[in-house]
């Protein structure tokens, strides 16, 4: 028997992936850019075991036995086994690729609440499978077939997922663009507005947006090409204020196309908008004080929870403001509430 345990962190997109050009291969309509958070905060942990004695594949998610019929898991498994079947071990073929697998996966944060759980989950699963079956090489296109955003969690730091042009998805891969400490002393605050499951899953929401939103055409053809180039330049030049402006603009545009969808995909709540408003007021104050390097930015995924990127020096100022404006429910201790402050992504 061979056993491997891996962890993979969530990634938070600052240029969002929303919409596919190929549903089956999970090929996106646009490039996206994200931060992979640090390993010690929000992450998935997966243990995989393979043995010639196992009679079938089995899967447990958050301690509950789940079916392995999910085609996305099957696609990842098939691709890893295909790659493993082509490998030679110490000069000879080995049939480990044909051994059944037992998979046990856990998230240390709410699953399917718009907190990138599938990204961490599939990145972790694919990496662990790669290790246990002895597969080398770029695993981001395999993780992509589990969940699009998962391909970005295969790398640390700032990562760009290239949409690619090929019909078979061979060039739709994630590449690191800057290391974890690129913006020194950066902190991330995750404001959990609601840990409940979202009403419209990302896959379905994207499908509806592509089918019905005319604003989406503008996003793909006009806004994104220049925003992505500006974001790459801001990252290269470590231009924090511009990075903040672009991150906020892209989050708001993604949620605008969600609202332009029929039926509308409504992910942000009144509380989400109140958090965004507080951040704008804070940034206006910093701008008035001529202190734009201490700006902060927010971004919202397909859910109501805010992800706030802040320079460490102002995190100490922003967090008490948030706690004062949005007091934690009495059942939660302040420690639990602030658990979302990640160390440097
Ligand atoms: C992102 N999201 O770029 C965007 C922002 C949510 C909002 O990627 O259908 O779970 O599995 O490829 O990867 C969530 O979408 O969707 C997502 P599928 P996925 O992070």
UniProtKB/TrEMBL annotation:
Q: Establish whether keyword Lipid biosynthesis is in the entry.
A: yes
Q: Which UniProt keywords are listed?
A: ATP-binding, Cholesterol biosynthesis, Cholesterol metabolism, Lipid biosynthesis, Lipid metabolism, Lyase, Nucleotide-binding, Steroid biosynthesis, Steroid metabolism, Sterol biosynthesis, Sterol metabolism
What top-level class of enzyme does the UniProt entry assign? lyase
A Pfam family annotated for this chain is: MVD-like_N
Keyword ATP-binding tagged = yes
What's an example Gene Ontology biological process for this entry?
isopentenyl diphosphate biosynthetic process, mevalonate pathway
Q: Where is the Mvd1 C-terminal domain?
A: 188-345
Reactions this protein catalyses: (R)-5-diphosphomevalonate + ATP = isopentenyl diphosphate + ADP + phosphate + CO2
Metabolic or biological pathway, per its Swiss-Prot or TrEMBL entry: Steroid biosynthesis; cholesterol biosynthesis
Recall the GO molecular function terms of this protein's record: ATP binding; diphosphomevalonate decarboxylase activity
Enzyme Commission identifier(s): 4.1.1.33
Q: Which residues form the Diphosphomevalonate decarboxylase-like N-terminal domain?
A: 8-174
Cellular component terms per the entry's GO annotation = cytosol
Protein task: Catalyzes the ATP dependent decarboxylation of (R)-5-diphosphomevalonate to form isopentenyl diphosphate (IPP). Functions in the mevalonate (MVA) pathway leading to isopentenyl diphosphate (IPP), a key precursor for the biosynthesis of isoprenoids and sterol synthesis.
Q: Return the similarity comment.
A: Belongs to the diphosphomevalonate decarboxylase family.
What is the protein's name according to its record? Diphosphomevalonate decarboxylase
Origin species: Chionoecetes opilio
Q: In the record, what lineage is assigned to the organism producing the protein?
A: Eukaryota, Metazoa, Ecdysozoa, Arthropoda, Crustacea
Tell me what gene encodes this: Mvd
């Amino acid at each position: 028997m061979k056993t491997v345990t891996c962890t993979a962190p969530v990634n938070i997109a600052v240029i969002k992936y929303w919409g596919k050009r190929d549903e089956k291969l999970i090929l996106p309509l646009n490039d996206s850019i994200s931060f992979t958070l640090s390993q010690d905060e929000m992450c998935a942990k997966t243990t995989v075991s393979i043995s010639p004695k196992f009679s079938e594949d089995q899967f447990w998610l958050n301690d509950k036995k789940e079916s392995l019929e999910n085609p996305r898991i099957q696609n990842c498994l098939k691709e890893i086994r295909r790659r493993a079947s082509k490998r030679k071990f110490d000069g000879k073929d080995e049939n480990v690729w044909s051994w059944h697998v037992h998979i046990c996966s856990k998230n240390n944060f709410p699953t399917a609440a718009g907190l990138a759980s599938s990204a961490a989950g599939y990145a972790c699963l694919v990496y662990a499978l790669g290790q246990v079956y002895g597969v080398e090489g770029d695993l981001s296109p395999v993780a992509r077939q589990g969940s699009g955003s998962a391909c970005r969690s295969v790398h640390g730091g700032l990562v760009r997922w290239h949409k690619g042009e090929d019909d078979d998805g061979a060039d739709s891969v994630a590449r690191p663009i800057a290391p974890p400490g690129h913006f020194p002393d950066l902190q991330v605050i995750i404001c959990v507005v609601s840990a409940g499951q979202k009403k419209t899953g990302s896959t379905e929401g994207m499908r509806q947006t592509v089918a019905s939103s005319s604003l989406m055409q503008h996003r793909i053809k006009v806004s994104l090409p220049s925003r992505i180039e500006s974001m790459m330049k801001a990252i290269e030049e470590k231009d924090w204020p511009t990075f903040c402006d672009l991150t906020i603009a892209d989050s708001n545009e993604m949620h605008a196309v969600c609202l332009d969808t029929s039926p509308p995909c409504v992910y942000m709540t009144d509380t989400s908008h109140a958090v965004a408003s507080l951040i704008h007021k804070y940034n206006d104050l910093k701008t008035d004080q001529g202190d734009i390097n201490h700006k902060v930015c927010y971004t919202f995924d397909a859910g109501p929870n805010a992800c706030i990127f802040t320079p460490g020096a102002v995190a100490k100022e922003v967090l008490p403001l948030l706690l004062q404006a949005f007091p934690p429910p009495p059942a939660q201790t302040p420690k639990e509430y602030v658990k979302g402050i990640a160390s440097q992504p």
